[in-house]
Amino acid sequence: MHLRGPMNISQLAVYQLPVEAAKLRRRSHVPFYNRRRALQQELRFPNTSSPRTADVRRWATATGCSPVSTVTSTVALTDCGAEPRRYSTAAPNITYVGPPSPCTTGTNASALDYPWQQPPTVTPRLERHPKLPLELALARSPHDTTRFHKRAADWDRVAYYTSTAPAQATGFSFLANLGDPSQSGTFDYAFGNSLSYVDSAGDKVAPENEPFNGTLDTSEYEIAVFSDKACDQDCPYWRPNATSHYAWSGSSKAFFIEFQMDHYLNRGSDYGLISDAPAWWFLNADIPRIVQYGNDRNNIPCSCWSTGCGEFDAFEVLGKGEERAKSTLHRQGNLEGGDSNYFKRPVGSTMKFAVVWQFPNITALVLDSSYDFPESLSEDQIDALVAYDPNSWVHSLFAIGK
């Protein structure tokens, strides 16, 4: 999700179905592109507080072109202050930009590179339910049927942010196109600045993720909000050396925000930027992980924006100082559209707003001021949010495509 000022954000929350939430939680916080560095640091500065020996393993299996092959790299560590007994260097990290290799078509070639875990053990009970995700299969135990039905119905809150001092964020990372190789992200003359972490004000690059203070002063500032899980080899593609994070996958998910959009003009020269026009929008995460704006130096489009990835503007003010905020769906050269309905920009007070993705529909709605952002949402609560009343003058339904 992306936010542009002027805007004050009081709360943010993201909800996913249990299957997608469990998948996200299992991902590592250690970036794929920094994992070699993390291993080297642990080897160089072992923890001497207690003697132990640990085997760190990486495994991968690929099928489809030849007999099954398995690659394993083992690092043996010790905390006794001595040099490590053995260090077998893994193959160099390679970022592949493009479609999946024919060798891995139809295979689970992404089930690899979790060196802090051991390979999962499949029990006879799970073998009888091979298509169930691990969490739901475990919940099928006859001793835990209540938990299974609850987990199958509830949407889990996987990320939450509040700006109440001190600002706190769980499950979020806050980034912007300010990449600086000396701190986070990168820069080159082909693609410009990559995504990087930003400081609490959201306007300067930071070396690591930190809670946003909730204020974007003018339209000159915008931030990209991802999950707190750094990209690994499962990300479809991402720019080498950039600060790249997972977003929220799945065709059913919900986003909530509490915000205020007072009027403030840009302070400096606009340089073509729109002024006093806040917005909240969503992009396919592959776009900002490569290049969010423009093409490369040869004017060749590099992100998937040019090949069908889309954008949904949950709300945006289209003109300088406008009071009307509206929703629009964009897909370059493909299906796009919106209508003329809008809600009045909240000035001097906050508004709560939700976007619920439930295939094949997207619902954007203003919430009651008393609406809470709970730790989970039931299917009934989601159904109540997305219910459409054709007789209501505040409901608008428009179709994209046939």
Descriptive report:
- A hairpin with a 7-residue loop joins strand 4 and strand 5.
- This protein is 12% helix and 30% strand.
- The radius of gyration is 23 Å and the shape is globular.
- The model is unreliable at 32-39 and 47-151 (pLDDT under 50).
- The strands form four sheets. Strands 1, 8, 11, 12, 14, 16, 17, 18, 19 and 20 form a ten-stranded antiparallel beta sheet that branches.
- The chain has 402 residues and is an alpha+beta fold.
- The chain has a domain at 1-28 and 152-401.
In short:
With 402 residues, the protein is α+β, with helices and mostly antiparallel strands. The protein has helices at residues 18-25, 35-44, 124-127, 134-138, 145-153, 286-290, 379-386, and strands spanning 2-4, 7-16, 53-62, 69-78, 86-87, 155-162, 168-170, 172-176, 187-188, 192-193, 196-198, 205-206, 215-216, 222-227, 252-260, 279-283, 310-317, 324-331, 337-338, 343-344, 351-358, 361-367, 376-377.
